[in-house]
Amino acid sequence: MTAAPDRIQASISEWKQITAPFQTPSVPRATWQIVNTLVPYFALWYAMWRSLEVSYWLTLGIAAVAGLLLVRVFIIFHDCCHGSYFKSKKANDILGFITGMLTFTPYGHWRWQHNVHHATSGDLDRRGDGDIWTMTVDEYAAAPRSRQIFYRIVRNPFVLFLLGPLVLFLVYQRFPSPRAKGKDRSSVMSMNVAVTLMVAGLCWLFGWKAYLMMQLPVTFVAGAAGIWMFYVQHQYEDTYWEHRDDWDYTTAAISGSSFYKLPRILQWFTGNIGFHHIHHLSSRIPNYHLERCHFSHPMFHSVKPLTLLSSLKCINLRLWDEKNRKLVSFREAKKLQEQKDAEVGLAA
Hints:
This protein is mainly alpha-helical.
C-alpha cells in the first residue's frame, strides 16, 4: 500500500480539518454496535455449551464464529483505549475494562502501550513498544548468530499465528512492560484479578473442563485473527520506516498503515479497522466512522488497498531494506548482502 508523496505533502495542512467531523462519537451507533456484538457473542457461548452434548466438532465451528466476534469486541476495547468510542471518559473506561476482561487484556496498560505505538509507528529509532519486532537488513547481518536464530523464530508464521495467540493473551498480557509505571503498571494486576474471578465463575457455571474446551478455541481464533490484522497493518512491502530526524507523523499514517480492503463480512467482524491509515491519521475517530472518513476526501483515494489475496505475500517479509525502502524476505536479504560483499571485494 502506497500513497504518492506529493499528494500526502499537499494535504498535511488539511488532514485535521478533514478528519474533525468524524471524531464526534455517536451514542446510538456505539450502543447498537455493543448490542449486535455482545448479545450474539454470549448467545454463541450458550450454543457452544449445548453443542458439547452433540459433537465437539460442532462446538469448534461455533467457537470459530465466536472468536471472530471477539475480534469485534477487541475493536470496541481498542476504541475505548483511545477515548473515541463515547464522549464520556468514564463510559469509555468502564466499557474498556469490561471488554478488556473478555479479551484477557489489561485496559490501562494496553492503552499506554498502544498510544506509544501510535506516537512512534514507522520510527526506526523508537521501536519496541506495541509493535512487531522488525530488524533492518544491516542490523540482522551484523547481529550474532544466536540473535539471528531468535529473530527467525519470533518472525516464523507458526510462532506468530499458531503459538502466538494463546501465549500473547493468556500469558504475556499477565505481566507489565518494564517501562510501564504507576496506574498503567498496576492495571495489569487489577485485570488479572478480574480475569481470575471471571474464569472461576465460568468454571463454576460450565465446569472447568467444558469451559476450557470452549474458551481455548475462541481465544485462539480471535488471537490469530487479531495478530494477523495487526501484522498486515504495518508489515507490507512498501510500508514506511524512517529514522527519527526524518520521520513524519502524517506520512507514517498514510504510507505506513495499510488500507486493508476486506470482504464486507470480514470488515464487519474486524470493526472497520482495515481502514488503518485513517485510524493512524486520527485515533479519535471511532471505528464506526472510519469508512465514511476514507471516502470523504480525495486525499485518501491515492492510497492503494491491500487485498486479502495480496496480503498473503506479507508473511514472507521480515526485514527492512533501508537502501531500497521496502520490507524484504530473508532470501532477498541474503542476496542483498551477497551483492554488498561482492561490491566490497571489487573495491578492495
